[in-house]
Amino acid sequence: MAEGTILLTGASGFVGPHVVAALTGAGWRLRLALRRPVPVPAGVETVKIGDLAQPLDWSEALRGVDHVVHMAGLAHAGPGLDEALYQRINTQATLELAQAAVTAGVRRFVYLSSIKALSGAFDGPPLTEDAAPAPDDAYGRSKLAAEQGLAALALDWVALRPVLIYGPGVKANMAALLKLAKLPLPLPLGGLQAPRSLLAVENLAEAIRFALTPACPPRRSYIVADPEPVSVAGMLTALRSGLGRGSGLLPVPEGWLRLAARLAGREETFLKLAGSLVARPEGLLSAGWRPPVETGAALARLAGSARAG
């Protein structure tokens, strides 16, 4: 069992409760840095912080802390947000906390980055950790800049680059796919067979726990994904299995669907749904990370929990 105290930021979001459970289950003492009060498990400390858009004094929050897990930040919200805001919250605030961690003698700093720091492309070759980063939007650039800033500090840091995360309470694209799966009619999406990398929230929580251990080599960035990619058709099949139904997918060719999307002016949306994006988590797997859940079972459980709710 682990011993020591972790300062955890961003614990009030979708991922947070899973990470709290994984770390407390491994024996860590937790101190959650929160902007507003939220219910926390017994034995978990909290400390109030201000808005990351402004410089903060982290000294009291870091007192007696052995490690930091920094998950707070400005989420990927698509075009329209000021790039300077991404840089302030995702880059500068991260580096301010990291520098304060150096001063406080923190042993390891785990940063929740994003696959967008490596690439935002669809339908390209599989992403690997030795590829040159080429982020294509403000969010990805801000995450990469934070990683580069961490590399310049005298600190044992680990940056985790998760792909699309799914699990109970998920929103955005995966929530939309779950809505499709719930429709009581056949779907013309059986031809969408391009592989996509996903990440179960339980597997991300285990990756964060693993990143705090000596087995995980520091001062580098890691892709985090379920080991085996899955197609949109496979996702819908697993989700409908969790709903107690057959797949009900009609094998309409992908080319026809793409043409229809283009004619409707929705080709970009279609590409985000159907395009291939495979990312290989080779570094973590080689170091000994073992994801606790399998993709198909986790998707089925997600749909089952949604039905129960």
UniProtKB/TrEMBL annotation:
Residues 6-214 form the NAD-dependent epimerase/dehydratase domain. It comes from the Bacteria. InterPro entries: Epimerase_deHydtase, Lipid_A_modif_metabolic_enz, NAD(P)-bd_dom_sf. SUPFAM superfamilies: NAD(P)-binding Rossmann-fold domains. This is NAD-dependent epimerase/dehydratase family protein.
